[in-house]
Each structure stands twice: as C-alpha cells, then as structure tokens.
Amino acid sequence: MEAKMSLSLNNFIQLENFGHSLRAPSYRFRPTSPEEICEVFQLADKTGLTVTARGAGRSYNDAALNGGGIILDLTAMNRILEWDSATGLVRCEPGVTLEQLWQRVEPEGWWPPVVSGTMKTTLGGCLGANIHGKNNFKMGPIGEHVVGLTALLPTGAEITCTPKENIDLFYGMISGLGILGVFTSITLQMKHIESGLLEVHAWPAHDLHEHLSLLLDNAPNYDYIVGWMDTMNGGKSLGRGQIHAANYLHGNEDPNPQKTMQLNNQILPPRIFGVFPKSILYLFMMPFANNLGWWGVNTAKYVASLRRSVFRQSHAAFHFLLDYVPNWELSYGRGGLIQYQSFLPKETAEAAWREMIDLSLRRGLPSYLGVTKRHRPDKFLLTHAVDGFSLALDFKVTDSRRAKLSQMLQDFDRIVLNAGGRFYFAKNSETSAEAARTFLGEQTLLKFKELKKRCDPNNLLESDLFRRVFE
Amino acid sequence: MSNYPKPVSATPLNPRRRGIIIGASDGIGAALARRLAHEGYTLALLARRKDKLESICVEINQTSNEQRARAYVHDVTEYEKVPELLRRIVADLGGLDLVVFVAGVNYPPGGIDKYNFENDRKMIEINLIGAMAWLTPVAEMFQSAKAGQIVGISSVAGDRGRVGNPGYNTSKAGLATYLEALRNRLTRHGVNVLTVKPGFVQTEMLKAAQGPTPFMIPPEKAVEDIWSAMKKRKQVVYTPPIWRWIMLAIQLTPSFIFRRLSF
After folding, report:
1. Is A77-192 in CATH node 3.30.505.50?
2. Where in chain A are the domains?
3. For A197-435, CATH number?
4. Do the beta carbons of residue A371 and residue A226 sit within 8 Å?
5. What percent of chain A is predicted at pLDDT more than 70?
6. A173-187, A307-321, B201-215: which range is least confident on average?
7. Could you say which of B12, B137, B146 has the minimum Cβ distance to residue A397?
8. Could you report the per-residue pLDDT of B92-105, keeping only the tens digit for each?
9. Contact A127, A146 (CB under 8 A)
10. Tell me, what's the pLDDT at A4?
C-alpha cells in the first residue's frame, strides 16, 4: 500500500475537460476504498500538494482539473451497494455512473429522478455540481432526491448527512464541487415508472417570446420540457426553435410495459440505419463545425421542426442526447468547445437573451447550439437555479477567436448579472470570482468558507475551479 | 507549501503556458525569460544568485502587470534536491509546458598547454550532470503527460574537440548527445526537444573567452532565434544561423589538418 501511494511520475498524466478545451497535468490516483482515499489525503499533506476529486470528467470547465496537483479519480469506486426494487432506494459508491444506475433499475420499473444530458456522469460528480435535468421545474436538482450520504473529510473524519442530520453539510456538500469532502456512498430515491416509453410532444417556436411562453405555459402539464434554439438567426425570428415536452405513460397507455422496460428497448443503437457506425460519425461532422456549416444545420433543423408531432420514445433516447453521437465534442476540432449557460428569472430572461444573441451575431461569434429549460429555485448552498429559464450556448474555441470570445462572455456576464441571473459551475469556464460573488452573495460565500474551514482546515481539497472562483 | 501566491487558473479562453528556466539570472536565460513572459508564459526562474533573480522577476512582473515570474534559488549541482523542487514548481505554476536548461559555466584552462581537472570537473558537473539531473525527471513527466517542450542550450563548442578548452567541449558535446537521445525517446510521445547551439553571445561567460569572437550577437538576438525555433518545434538551431555552415566546415575538416591548428 505504501509503495502505491507515492508520487510516481508514472501517474503524472494530462487530463482534459469534457469540451477538450482545457488540459492540466496531475498525479492521478484511483482509490478503491475510503481507506485509500485517506492515504491520498495523507500523501497530499506530506508533499504539500492539493487534491481534486474527479469522476467521469464530464464537466465543461476546470471543476475536475488540478494542474500540478493530485487527482482523486473515483471511477474505480463504482459498486451499486444496495438496491431495493420494492422501495426504489439505491445506495451507490460515488463512481457509479448514471448509465450503470438506470440500466440496473429501469427493467424493474424505476428511473433516476434527475439525469443529465449524458449518462456517462458519475453520481459523485452529479452531486458535486448538483445537476438538473429537463424536469428541474418539477423535480428540482438531483440533491432533492438524496436520502442520505456518507463522505470522507480531509481531516480523516467520515460523516453521515441527510436532510435532517448534518443539515448544513448536506446542503453544502451537494453543490459544493467536491471542495468540502469526498462522497463515499450516496443513497438515492428512484422514481417509479409504469412504462419504458415517454409520450413526447414537439412544436415549433417562431421567436424568442413564443419560445419562452411555450416553456412557461406548458411546463405545468408535463413531466419534462426542453427547448432547442436556433441561435444563428437574428432579427424577427431571433430565438426561434422547437419545444419538446414529455410525459410518463400511465396505466394501460402502454399495452406492453414489460417489453418497453427491457434494456434492449432502451439502449441507443450503435449504428445508423443498422450499418453506419456512430463511433466515427463525429469525423463527418468536423467539416461542418464552422459558422456556415452550423448555420445550415440550424436552419434545416428549424424547417424540419415546423410540423407539430407527437411520438413515443424510450427514456434513454429522450434524455441522453449527448450520447447519441459518441465523441461529438471532438468534432469541434483542436481548440474544443466551451459552454455558456445562464439562468435568468422569467421576468428578465427575454430581454437579456435577446441582447446576448444579438451581440453574438453582430460580433460574428454565434453559438452553434442553444438549449433552453424551465427551472425553479432550490435550497442548496451554491445553487444555480432561479424561478425562470436557462439557456445553454455552445461556442467553438479557436486560436483566432479566443480574445474576442473572452471579451464577449464578459459582456454576457454583465448582462446576466444585471438581470438577476446565475451561473452553473459544471458548465461555464470563464466565470470570474467577482461574478460569482455577485450572484452567490457575500453571505453564501462566508457560509461556504466557514464550512470549508470546518471540513478541510489544511486546504487539501482544491481544484482549478476553486482557485479561479473562490480565492 | 510554497510562499508564492496561487497560480492564475487557465481557462479555455485564457490558456496559460508554464515554463521553467534553469539559469535565468543573466545572459541568454534572463533574455529568454523576458521574451517568454512577453509571449504570455508564466515562469519559474532558477539561479544561484538570489538578488539578480529577484530583480528580473520584479522587472517582468511590473512590465506584464501580473505575477508572471517567480524566483527559486537553486544550485544545479545539488542534484538530490531537483525532484522535490520540480514537483513544487509544477504545483505552484499549475502545470508545465516547457523546461529550458541554460545554466552553464566556462573555465578555459588559459592556454593550449595548460590542464585543470578541477575546472573540467566543475564544467561537467554543472553543464552536463546538472542538465541530466533536471531533464531526467522532466522527460519522465513529459513522456507520461504526452506533451511538453524541452530546450537545452548546448554550444557550437560541442561540435568538435579543440585544443583550447577540452573540458568545455566535452560538457557541451555530452549535453548535445544527451538531448538528441531524449529527442529520440520523446518525439513519439509528443514532446519536442530543441538543442540550441549558440556561437559567441555577449554575456558574462564570454568575458572568459580568449582570442577573437567573430559573429558576436547580443543575447536578445540569440533569444529571437531560439523563440522562432521553439514555435516551429525544431530539433536543432544554431544562433546566429551562420554557425551551422561554419561548424559544418569545421566538422568536415580532416583530423590530420585539424590537429595541426591552434584553433
């Protein structure tokens, strides 16, 4: 054991963010037990290095990067420890992915209450960022479905948190970006489902006002709602796009639920039309990863979306769009991509986003993909949610665009903050300490620092994100 | 823990390149430090002389209006301290993209019939073993990370053994061969190794030179050539470039002529 926990240069590897736009070399350790996590903390203390917990590395920014320090890679702690199909309670190690989880519970009539757009994320990462899904307006973030958790603090103490026990740590560690402690087990309540299918309604939105109205008015009638926005066309049709809303099927709406809940009915097909392997599809997307190519894609998609439709889709196909084309993020080329997601109150969203999209078009830096969702506030310490909407924008990074994009995102930050908006730490990579202080508020930061001091007096847990935003 | 402020976090839109310059207190090292800082590098500057090193850091940080250079006092013959210091610097900088080994001494024996083992040994210990002590863990690190750039300052003096300074010739020839070997190991892992062979550069070291110093250039000119070669990820660069042809002629001179020369 002692030999394994030394800073060998063989462990020194280059790690990336999800968008392949940021790299940082670190000493990587893959513990398999809480004892080994403890040993990594001791090693860090001895060598004066800091530690960052990392799951699947699906954050678009530096949340799981620690240049020159230690990375605690938790993907080897990926056992589902207990699963009770009578109550829907599941206890997992932090490295369990959403993919493992839904594939375990779905055939028995359950589904994770909140999922991200990719199923590759780990539960530890999901809790650290306190992820939301397309049902945030109804189900809140994943943290609201955590029944209990255990975590190891850098002091060596192992603590148990529930919504009733160690309450401040429960609400601080979930959303706490892995900075207070490392989750060692997570107990979640699954959602009961009566069919493997969702009924999906799709209808077009002709401009930004209609887009947001459709989200607002329809959300109460559906279990999930999400919008796609064509962010490459301005003028009168700025904000146009398509809304998808979905409901669970109940009772006898699905004549054969036993069949639709089988895994082979859910798993995304690896080939298109049964012949073309999707694993290399991203290569064929690369020539289109520029302003003209994506303009064509957006326009074609909008035209195709003008017809209203109703169809049934499996849970996995509806939720995990990001997994539909494996390695899609590589299609953005060497510089990778960044995502800019802003959360705005429903009263101010329209004006702010109109200004932002207009700005991006005028500066020749359009976003290639826009996704909107409906949200509601939650009680977690570093919350990103508001009673309103979010808009996620993807931008391609190239050497010649960096400075201009950086300037534009600073302008975006100003617009969002003036409109009472917030940001999401799993997504935005450029949020400054000042911006974070503005939307989180002095009180929240003080509370977070106080928890940090209590859990980690020697500052062993740090990430590039923590240093960027909280120091 | 380090006493320096935490490194500035890199972001996709504000990427940070990080470099170490070993032997940065004057001459080519100091000039390269100024140039790389100007190009946006965050640097760890190493040398024995604390005051000189710190004044360069202050100058760089004032010019760039942020903390771009940090000083680390270090003697390259303290080989056993290197791994720990390297680890600390990489943590302080938040990563590592570049290592430049410039440190070197030149003690000419003072005549073609003079011998001085003590001085020869020092030159080997600093110019060659000092470089190996640093570049060994650096190479291992870069190989593992599958990225990085190593720059070693050898010399035209390493291209042929001459009557004037056998010890210095040997140290620089050894360094050039060592860098070549590293290059052959590391290119396949995506790491670039650049060997720099300066001719006469106006530095402290040149004061020891005896005889004529043709094609002499200021350190800034040498740095221009080095930076240009670094950007192109070249393998060997002579500075000024004319030395490539001069040294080719010297290397091609047959031994029966070369050993009769007093050059």
Report:
1. no
2. 9-75+451-470, 77-192, 197-435
3. 3.30.70.2520
4. yes
5. 99
6. B201-215
7. B12
8. 999 999 999 999 99
9. yes
10. 56
pLDDT band, residue B1 (cuts 50/70/90): very low
Determine the pLDDT at residue A3: 44
Please report the sign of the dihedral spanned by the C-alpha atoms of residue B140, residue B141, residue B146, residue B150: negative
From chain B, the residues in CB contact with A17 under 8 A are 12
Which residue, among B117, B113, B97, B85, has the nearest Cα to B18 in the 3D structure? Answer: B97
Q: What is the pLDDT of residues B151-193, one digit of tens each?
A: 999 999 999 999 999 999 999 999 999 999 999 999 999 999 9
Scanning A326-365 for CB atoms below 8 A from B yields 335-336, 338
Question: Position of tokens 């890679």?
Answer: A73
ipTM above 0.90 for this complex:
no
Contacts of B118 (CB under 8 A, 6+ apart): none
Residue A19 near chain B (CB below 8 Å): yes
For chain B, which residues make up each domain, given as ranges?
17-258
Q: Provide the H-helix boundaries in A331-401.
A: 349-362
- Which amino acid belongs to residue B116? N
Whether the Cβ atoms of residue B155 and residue B205 lie closer than 8 Å to each other: no
Residues A188 and A92: their CA atoms lie apart, in Å, by 8
- Candidates B103, B90, B102, B104; CA nearest to B19 is B90
Whether the CB-CB separation of A130 and A189 falls below 8 Å is answered with no
Q: Considering the entire predicted model, what is its pTM?
A: 0.92
Q: Does CATH number 3.30.1330.10 belong to domain B17-258?
A: no
- Domain with residues A9-75+451-470, CATH architecture: 2-Layer Sandwich (3.30)
Higher pLDDT, A93 or A335: A93
B52: its two tokens:
């000189």
Tokens read off for B18: 């990080």
Mean pLDDT of A313-323: 91
Non-local (6+) Cβ contacts of B18 within 8 A are B7, B41, B42, B43, B44, B90, B93, B94, B95, B96, B97, B98
Give the DSSP H or E segment for B66: none
In chain B, which residues touch A (CB < 8 A)? 1-2, 6-7, 9-15, 87-88, 90-96, 137, 140-141, 144-147
Q: Is the pLDDT of residue A395 over 80?
A: yes
Q: Is the CB of residue A73 less than 8 Å from the CB of residue A85?
A: no
What is the distance, to the nearest Å, from the Cα of residue B162 to the centroid of all Cα atoms in its chain? 22
Average pLDDT of chain B, as a whole number = 94
